[in-house]
Amino acid sequence: MQFSLVGAALAVLDVPEPERKVRRSQAAASDWRGLRITHIGEAAPPPRPARPARPELLPPSKVKRRKIGSASAGRVALLHALAHIELNAIDLAWDIIARFTHEELPRDFYDDWVQVADEEAKHFDLLSNRLSDLGAAYGDLPAHDGLWQAAEATADDLLARLAVVPMVLEARGLDVTPAMIEKLRGVEDNASADILRIIYEEEIGHVTIGRRWFQWLCERRGLEPLATWQALVRERFRGPLKPFFNEAGRNEAGLPSDYYAPLVDRPDG
User: Fold this and answer.
1) For the chain, which residues score pLDDT lower than 50?
2) Where in the chain are the domains?
C-alpha cells in the first residue's frame, strides 16, 4: 500500500500530529512528482482524519474572534484560525485523492490535488512558524470543525465535494484574505502579511483547480455546470453565501458572479 498514491494519502490522513502530517504530505508529493509513486491504488479512507488532542474543537458560534491590533493576542488568534484551516485543507486534498478513485480519473486530476496538498502543507508550516515567532503554537486556542463537516456532507459524490470545498469554502478565503493582509500591514506585521499573500496567491490556483475539475466532471456526466453547481450548493452547503465577494480574485480563478450571486439571498439559507 505504501507504493500507491492512495496508500500515501492514507498515511497522511492517519497521523494525528500536525508536524508529521505536514512532513508525510510533503514526502508523498515529492514521491509522486519524482515518479517514485506511479500507481493510484484503491482503499477506503477513514470517515475522519486523525486529529491531535489539541486544539479543542467547538461549534463555530462558540469560537471567539479577536480583532487584529498592535497587541499580539489578536494576531495570534487570527493566525491560529488560519493554521487550523490549512491543517484541514491538507487532509481534504488527500481525502479527495483517496475517496473517489472509482470515478476512473485521469492522472492530471491527481497531479493537481497532490499539488494542492503540498501547498496546503507549506501554508500550515508558514503559519505554525509564525505563531512560534509570536510565542504561541497551534493547539493553544480552540478551533471549529466546520470544514470537516462540509467534507462529511459531500463524501458520497465527487461533484458535490468540488462544488462545496474549493468553489465555496476556498473561494471565501479569496474574499477575506486581502483585508487581513491590509490590516496586518497597518499594524506593521509585515511578516504575517507576507505569509497571507503567499497563501492568497496559491489559493486562487486551488479554486481554479476545483472549478476546472467540476466543469470536467459535469461534461462527463452531461450536466450544465452553472445550474448544477447552484443546485449542489443549495443542497449540500450549510448557510447562505455572504458578501463581500472579491470579484477580481474569483474571476481570476474562473468563478464569475453568475455562479454565486443568485444564491446570496436564497430563502432556505
Assistant:
1) 1, 266-269
2) 65-263
> pLDDT value at position 267?
45
Q: What sign does the dihedral 246-249-251-253 (CA atoms) show?
A: negative
The C-alpha atoms of residue 197 and residue 202 are separated, in whole angstroms, by 9
**The pLDDT value given to residue 268:** 44
Question: What's the CA gap between 136 and 207, in Å, rounded?
Answer: 30
CB neighbour list of residue 150: distance below 8 Å, 6 or more residues apart = 164, 165, 168, 169, 236, 237, 238
CA triple 226-228-231, angle to 5 deg = 110
pTM, entire model: 0.94
Residues ≥6 apart with Cβ < 8 Å to 261: none
Contact between 129 and 194 under an 8 Å Cβ cutoff? The reply is no
* DSSP sequence for 88-99: HHHHHHHHHHHH
Q: Which of 198, 182, 196, 203 is nearest to 252 (CA)?
A: 203
Q: What's the residue count for the chain?
A: 269
Answer CATH for 65-263 from 1.20.1260, 1.20.272, 3.40.30, 1.10.3430: 1.20.1260
Please name the residue that has the C-alpha cell 489559493. 203
DSSP state of 24: H
For 152-208, give the DSSP string: HHTTT-HHHHHHHIIIIIIHHHHHHHHHHHHHHHHTT-HHHHHHHHHHHHHHHHHHH
Closest CA to 166 of 114, 204, 192, 109: 204
